[in-house]
Structure prediction request, 634 residues.
Amino acid sequence: MLNYVIKRLFSMIPVLVGISILLFFMLRMLPGDPAQVLAGQMASPEEIETIRKQLGLDRPVYEQYLSYLGRLVRLDLGRSARTQNPVIEEIWARLPNTALLAVVAIGLACLFGIPAGVISAVRPYTWVDYAVTMGALFGISMPVFWLGLMLVVVFAVVLRWLPAGGTGSWQHVVLPSVTLASFVVAFIARMTRSTMLETLSLDYISTARSKGLKEEVVVIKHALKNALIPIVTVVGLQFGLLLGGAVLTETVFAWPGIGRLIVDSILARDYPVIQGTILIFGLLYILVNLAVDILYVVIDPRIRYE
Amino acid sequence: MTVNAEPLLRVENLYTRFDTMDGVVTAVDGIDFDVHAGETLGLVGESGCGKSVTALSILRLLRCPPARIEGRILFGGRDLLQLDADAVRSVRGREISMIFQEPMTSLNPVLAIGEQVAEGVRLHQRLSRRESWQRAVEMLQKVQIPSPEIRAAQYPHKFSGGMRQRAMIAMALSCGPKLILADEPTTALDVTIQAQIMSLMMQLKQELNTAIVLITHDLGIVAETASRVIVMYAGQIMEEAPVRDLFKDPRHPYTRGLLGSVPVIGRGQRPNRRLQEIPGMVPSPLRMPAGCRFHPRCPQVAPRCCHEAPPMVLLGEHRRVRCWLETV
Prediction:
């Protein structure tokens, strides 16, 4: 098992190098000149040229990439073209906010999504099931920014229970995490329902019932544990995505997270920050996937990694 | 075994219907039979004749709806169909337990074998975790699983088909039930393993004085183990007889067809005798033939059989047949 984890950690290196190559060259294909953006509309051609030299943008692209890679090996993500702060500091200032939102949102989504899915699988084609299905459809199809705005209107403007945006207390976390969770909860509920429906029709469920076990025991101990693999997979993927930041939600709630950092950097053609954040996002995504793979072993005794 | 004693299980006029998109399917169509303490009753017939549904109806393991079960299932003076859910659960596993056909899929893959045996014991005999685990290990030993302490902690994927079926038997017997419904317990196993499992079941049955309803399509197994046989066809009982009488003197053309389709090696065989088959197919439960259900396939069909359902004719104690031939 330990060998497997070490192997997986080493296999991250080529993936991250791949991401860095794709990202580096795709960014350079974007229209717009970062030197021009930084210098401003009124700058003279000489000033723009100076900035370009400072940023090293006058050298051939492959040369730029190699020196970027060289710094990357020394864990140096460079400095922001806009603020001149080290990229790692820019990310570190926002990553905890994004992580907090992601953890709370995924927690809420599991807390409501899994029981909702289980209940609708236990009572399929009844009003409970239809209610869960309708709710899930609502959650999946509702635009996040609209839901966010509506929550702000109701809970911040009308009822004045919660702040409309910003950070600082647990109250600030509620509305953005509920907004983010609405989509994920629907996803998890649907996935749980379908895998539970399938599991509940299997032979060993009849065996469990024939022993005289209570229906709750049959459903939770015998069925849910078997249905967990696809559920955990979905939860892991969604969590990985949430860690990449949620631009719309962060914008609506003025939440200083990674998502907004990426968008702001793209608009400013701030190459080092874009490269740094997306690389870190890639790293987190791979780590979450690894965690999910390890979790499989805990859930299902048939799964063993060599 | 005294035949006249109060039966352990009495099934009266049992109907099990399923509401489907295409209409109502009557899987079990008004059957009745008794099971006495300690006996082995064979329930035989082709696939889809309603024998498994009968067993699932007795333990009320069918989802209702779409299933609808009517009639009376008397066990220990109570009608199982009238009990509430809690009372039915206290019968399952404790008084009546079930062994399923597919050992590969009937055990939960993510729970240790020992736990799967122990949980029933813990529930019905109110034992602690430790005690019930100990009991599970004892049961695994009883069904001749080698090194049961180690095996109890393992998961089903480490067990072969035969071993799994042994574990299923351990599970079924763990609370000392009075009756076991064994639904094709050896069908999925190799022939050599089949013999081992059957002899194990019979030995434990003797030891614990448990009655068995043995559901199978294998007449060889019935001949070796059952004392009495019920032949089912298309949801109905066609013939019932003590096992010797059935094999010596089958009265229903369907029973004769079944016996004729069993290959016999050796004695009394003409060298070029072809295996007999029953022509035609089992009727669709949505379009049962009028009259006798077997008439489209019956070699002795008479005009009356095509439109008038034959009555059940009593020929003696535990000897009955549903055929017009017996009424004259």
User: Anything to note?
Assistant: Chain B is about 30% helix and 25% strand. Chain B touches chain A through 30 residues (CB under 8 Å). Residues 111-158 of chain B form one domain.
